[in-house]
Predict the 3D structure of the following.
Amino acid sequence: MKKRRNPEMALWRVWWLEPMPGVWIEGKIILEENNCEVIVGRLQTEAEEPYSEDEIVEGGKDVDALLVIARERITARILEELDDLKIVVKAGIGVDNIDVDAATRFGVLVANTPVPADYVGVAEGAVARILALAKRLHACDGEVKAGRWLRRYDLLRGVYMKGKTLGIIGLGRIGSYVARLMKPWGVKIIAYDPYVPKEKAVLLDVELVELDTLFRQSDFISIHAVLTQETRHMIDEAALRMMKKTAYIINTARGPIIREEALYKALNEGWIAGAALDVYEEEPLPPESPLLRPEVADRLILSPHVAGLNPEMERGLTLAQVDCCLKALRGEPPESTVNPEAIPKWRSRFEKKTP
């Protein structure tokens, strides 16, 4: 990192950790046109490992804002030691990689970027995986490419969707949109979300049920919950054993919601029919993961945390991060601030440090 900027040249310093390739250039220009010095970190496509806590503490000692993705862990130590830090802006909705309680304690704002191209894109990605599993697209593709055609006929037999039950865990923006997209397929939709009012479920024509009921009744389960202590390893061996042997599970939310060792066992021993995962307990997925073993390959679709990836999402998230950053640096809390209780202390710190 460079030494502190010349105040006559830039008012603020912004560190953009792992920006999205290509579109970050537009965001950098906007920031620079608004009196920011921008330090561009390793691009997402070039970073094999996320920045460590030590790297962020050492490199961020005089930054006013951090722009991050889901990989970097913004810990209490980071938030305490970066004395000039005013805001952390996360690309996307979930902020489970940021210690929001610590940020509030130290008077640092945390904002997310809920742009439609992101959460609708993730919903579309979830539906694509539901249908890919139902119609056995991964198996069909593999059989043709292997030259086997119809030799493993039973492996290629799909699911007739009409009348099946879709269980949604988490009926927020993404889960609600999945419900809307799946309705025309003639499925019954049930959901578990203890924080959603019944009125919302009624408007979506979704039946709210207990979690155990959802596990037992669903033909497909799509996870759209945030990662909390309550949801961590929510899908464990006991949950998987409750599911139908013909059921499928889809996770485009957060990896640690599913205990992967239990999922491997469920797939290998035939407790459930299959799964599609876009997120993992550890990312990138380590080569020794049981999910990469050949014995479960026919039952499993894997993707590298890209369920919602599209050009509109990339640009939307980038510009939303920039907008949140500039608002905070100018003394205006962003509308998407997730810890508004931090604002009084943040204002006090900000007023003292504003050039």
